[in-house]
Amino acid sequence: MRKVVRIASWLYALAVYAFIFLPVVVLVLFSLQATSFPIPPFTGPSLRWYDAVLSDTRLTSALVNSLLVASISSLAAVTLGFLCAWGFARFVLPGSGLLRGLITLPLTVSYLIIGMGLLVLFNWAGVPKSLLAAGIGHVVINLPLCFAIIYSQMGNHQINIERAARDLGAPEWKVLLLITVPVMAPAIFAGFFLSMTFSWDEFVISFLLTRFGTTLPVEIWNLLRSGLNPKTNAVGSLVFAVSIVLVVLFELTLLRRRKA
Amino acid sequence: MSSSANKGRALPRAGSALPRAALPWALVTPALGWTLLFFVLPFIAMGFSSLTAHEGGAFTASNYSQFFTNPSYWQAMVNSLQVTAIVTVISVLLAYPFAWILAEQVPERWQRLALMLAVLPFWTSYVVRSYSWLLVLAQNGVVNRALTSSGLFAEPVQLANTRFATVTGFVHFFVMLLTLTIFANLKQLSPSYRKAAADLGAGPVRTFLHVVLPLTLPGIMVGAFLTFVLCIGDYITPQILGGNNELLMPQLVMMQIGRRGDFPLASALSIILMAVVTIAYLACARWLKIERA
Amino acid sequence: MSAKSASTNPQSILKNHLHAACAATALLLGAGSATQAADLNALIWCDHADPALLQPFEEANGVKVNVKEFEGTGAGLAIVEQSQPGDWDVMVIDSIDVPRGVEKGLFEPLPEDKLPLADLFPQVKMDGSTVVGGKRYGITEKFGYNTIGYNKTKVDPADMQSMAALTGDKYKGKVAIYDYYLPVIGMAALAIGKKTADLTEADLPALKDELLKMKANAKLVGEVTASQTALATGEVDILVGGGEWVTAGLAKENPALDFSIPKEGAVLWSQSLAMFKDSKNKDMALKFIQYIMSPEGQARLATSSCYWGMPANTKAALTDDQKKVLRFDEQPGFLARAQAYPAPNADLDKKMQDMWTEMLQAK
User: Fold this and answer.
1) Which residues of A touch C (CB under 8 A)?
2) A121–C84 C-beta distance less than 8 A
3) Which of B52, B160, B247 is nearest residue C10 as measured by Cβ atoms?
């Protein structure tokens, strides 16, 4: 019986892994296609499409834009989220439950609707479309996430350390910078990292709120509209590779921290 | 939670630049202000816009009445709900056993790696992920090649440009997401529950049904709700994979913007979509509370 | 939108309030997004985004061309309305829709003496639309046909001489429909024996029947790329609304692709360039239009990576191979049998789009 369960488990897990990896394998394989259509038969390997991607200034500048928007908006989201979580966790505020509900409300709303709302608002207010506008949208979607993560990790032992620091006469800003931030670092880091991921990959808000300079997902969308070609595979594979490197680095720093 | 916070507050403080009562507000106001300015206000603007006419800008309810009177608009919502329901159910059914295997059958030291591998394709770009499925499912794609060359089918099957393709693209993403949340949930279960059940004479099946499953249900609900919200609002997946053989709500919204620049109608449709999500939220609200550890 | 002039409607009242409330934000954001004065801002279709087309102009004039793609004329005009005056310099627009932009007071008359009008195919100048009140506001740059594109090794080319093949059983499940409502509605009109220029609301039920019959045969309804790809990769054998814009660019990859102009006729698509009245860079905008209309610019535009099409200028510097692929020499015969896009007013346009939505939703 045990054995049957075990074998069945293995087979099932393998099937799910195969399902999960099927599109990735096809994506990467046909990025090496030598001819113009990324469908069988495989004619590669060839690096011509990678060459095409790297010499396409629209794609490379979109990549830089994406990195800028992701890092700055995540920084803003995690800062606002952290301060807010600290405020709610440390102090009793009137209507606290309601206000926390308000902060986390955007989590339950589709990106499309958030983007639409900002688009309508910005249109009426005469705010031009720009990367900054898209960045504002990204803070809206990531702020509640950062808040929720950090807020949920603020436990009593951290309060005790802070109290000790205050008892020793440390002013509030020192407590914040020297005690709370370091103690909360894993949660802050997790919030930042998740925000980066979501912002980096976000399409519809950027699509609606940018004009000329836009982010990578939107530029990939434009590329897709200009034909089914292995260039899209190549840019997808490159993004995948970069992301994997980042994830592994993240894992390693986290593991080191845990061991230390 | 409030007792310790009270104590923190009661402490005397020296050398603060801000008056004592103002500090907490100074901390929470930026985030609250941001949410009000860039989330609540846009929503109000959208509500306002949805009540105006596309040409001329006069007050009208016609954007809403169109949705209820035009069967093809209405159909978009029905399609969206059907697809979302199918995707949510299939994703949970696929992900739960998978997460269980990772948590129970895989040796402890390999679990982290196994989980990492299971969510790795998550990091391909979101637009590219749907596109990859198009390649996989195409008439001459790898799946059809395998089916025809293995002799299972004489003719290639139409997989791409169908609802099946849309659902597959969605399920792929949400299986990864749900595996993550359910795995975390299973690992949080204290082994003592299971031991206690076993000590009381329950077999593995009964232990699972009466102890493990009920205890992981809240986690499943959170994951299912997340799936619902993300799925029903997604434009890219159906647009790339569905072949426009039917329209879902986000496609209908984007069509109003893309073809005619009709923001009032797009706003009205967005608000209707949001109302549906809110109903779903209320239905599972009791599982979705964010609490401090 | 007329909201700009009428200050009593709710939209503009709210707008005024929001202006005050968001002034600071706007200032901040505006500073972050201001484009350089030397840039040329163009509202375009995807064929103009090709670096092979833009780069020679940018290098020759030391200017950066910013491009923004849009789908339909309605959406393009909406983008302009949401922008500040002077944000845009040039626009690509369906020739038949030029009057819509003129009506809204957006366009600047073009100096006819500085443009190669005499070299254009006379049938595509479309003065009925591009000249309003005696002034020229648009110049046709590229054209082609929405007709039947097909793979000649998979279908009988003789069948492609009649639109009846599109709704018959023989090619059921082998058909894709190009996802743009105007040309395909135009084709449906030809199929039921109506002139595209004369369509009224009374024709909609018959048109809808025809569209639904096409949909019943179709495997997918796709945009420029999706439909191109479907035909090129063998997903389908026939593309309703296809033409040289699909087959020419893919000729190298798949020489079996071809198009026909059936006995009922075909729909002529024609895109024009227009200059904005509020452009801050009119000299450069004119230079850009002149470049696109020049024999070199015309050749690059005609063979752009997004889609190929016939250059409007008969002197376009195309190679013989390219001319053969585009069937350059057969144009007079094609043009004689083609009719322009339907040009509905705002009300009929909305009804046509709803009809299109209904077609998409039909099972």
Assistant:
1) 35-37, 39, 56-58, 121, 123-133, 211-212, 222, 224-228
2) no
3) B52
Both tokens of C273, joined, read 């360039």
The set of chains that have 3 or more CB pairs under 8 A with B is A, C
Domain ranges of chain A: 57-259
Could you give the C-alpha distances from B128 to A53, A236, B194, in angstroms and in order? 14, 6, 42
Return the domain boundaries, chain B: 84-248+274-287
For the stretch A192-227, pLDDT in tens is: 988 988 898 899 999 999 988 889 999 998 888 766
Q: pLDDT (tens digit, 9 = 90+) per residue, B61-98?
A: 999 999 999 999 999 999 999 999 999 999 999 999 99
Question: Cβ separation of B28 and A208 shorter than 8 Å?
Answer: no
Per-residue pLDDT of chain B (293 residues; tens, 9 = 90+): 344 444 444 444 444 445 567 888 888 999 999 999 999 999 999 999 999 998 777 899 999 999 999 999 999 999 999 999 999 999 999 999 999 999 888 888 888 888 888 888 888 888 898 989 988 988 888 888 888 888 878 888 888 889 999 999 999 999 998 998 888 888 877 677 777 777 777 777 777 788 788 888 878 888 888 899 889 999 999 998 998 889 999 999 998 888 888 899 999 999 999 999 888 778 777 666 554 44
Reference A230, options C247, C222, B131, C50; nearest CA is B131
In which band, very low, low, confident or very high, does the pLDDT at A259 lie, cut at 50, 70 and 90? Answer: low
CATH fold of the domain at B84-248+274-287: MetI-like fold (1.10.3720)
pLDDT tens readout for residues B281-290: 787 776 665 5
Q: Residue A17 is encoded by which pair of tokens?
A: 């892994």
Per-residue tokens: C362:
């039909």
Size of interface A-B (CB pairs under 8 A): 278
Contact B57 C1 (CB under 8 A): yes
Sign of CA dihedral C309, C311, C317, C322: positive
Element (H, E) at C219: strand C218-222
For residues C236-254, one letter each, b for 16 or more C-beta atoms within 10 angstroms of the residue's C-beta and e for the rest, the string is bbbbbbbbbbbbbbbbeeb
Give the count of alpha carbons within 13 A of B235, CB side only.
24
Question: CATH code for A57-259?
Answer: 1.10.3720.10
User: Is-above-0.80 flag for pTM?
Assistant: yes
User: Do β-strands C107-108 and C266-276 pair in parallel, antiparallel, or remain unpaired?
Assistant: antiparallel
Contact predicate B94/B175, CB 8 Å = yes
* C-beta pairs of C10-19 under 8 Å, 24+ apart in sequence: C10/B48, C10/B51, C10/B52, C10/B57, C10/B58, C10/B59, C11/A124, C11/B48, C11/B49, C11/B52, C11/B57, C12/B57, C14/A124, C14/B45, C14/B48, C15/A124, C15/A125, C18/A121, C18/A124, C18/A125, C18/B45, C19/A125, C19/A126
Residue C260 β-bridge partners:
C148
Q: Which domains does chain C have, with CATH numbers?
A: 2-143+269-338 (3.40.190.10), 144-268+341-361 (3.40.190.10)
Q: CA A128, A134, A137 angle in degrees (round to 5)?
A: 115
